[in-house]
Amino acid sequence: MDSDSKEQHTKKSASNRITPGPDIRKYVENRIELFSITVAEQIAFTVSTSIQKFIGLLFLSFGIVFLWIALGFFLGELLNSQALGFFLASLPLLILGFIFYNRSSKNLEQKIQSDIIEKIALNFEKKTASLADPDNDKKKLN
Q1: Is 119 exposed, middle or buried, given 0-12, 13-18 or 19+ CB atoms closer than 10 A?
Q2: Cα torsion through 122, 127, 128, 133, rounded to 10
């Protein structure tokens, strides 16, 4: 009789264990799917922003190149020598290029990387605020 009560107690404790039901499993799957969609959205946002900025810089670069060519022609007309005009127009570019090439760009690289990471992290935190605070969903429903 004593062994029967132990068996029943073991069966009761085994039945008292929490087993994930279909609702909990579906909830976790939905949260994982929401998280992956949020990550994909952030990647798409970052790529689209980068492409937009790249295209803007490309147009800006073309404009600067044409202005620099115009400056070369203008200086050539003033000095009565096209070669001297283009040489003088290219001197600032050569000097700046030499300075940037010889200068250590570790600080610039770190600044760019930290800016990109900060933008991604801030946008990600905004999008996943409901994931971090489960009570937030209850507040929205009420």
Answers
A1: middle
A2: 100
Cβ 89 vs Cβ 75: under 8 Å: yes
Query: Could you tell me if 89 and 71 are in contact, meaning their C-beta atoms sit under 8 angstroms apart?
Result: yes
Per-residue pLDDT of 19-31, as tens digits, reads 667 788 888 888 8
pLDDT tens figures, 71-125: 999 999 999 999 999 999 999 999 988 888 887 667 777 787 787 777 777 776 7
DSSP state letter for 105: -
What CA–CA distance (Å, rounded) separates 128 from 121? 10
- Output the CA–CA distances (angstroms, integers) from residue 51 to 39, 48, 58, 116, in the order listed: 18, 5, 10, 14
Backbone angles phi, psi at 72, to 5 degrees: -60, -45
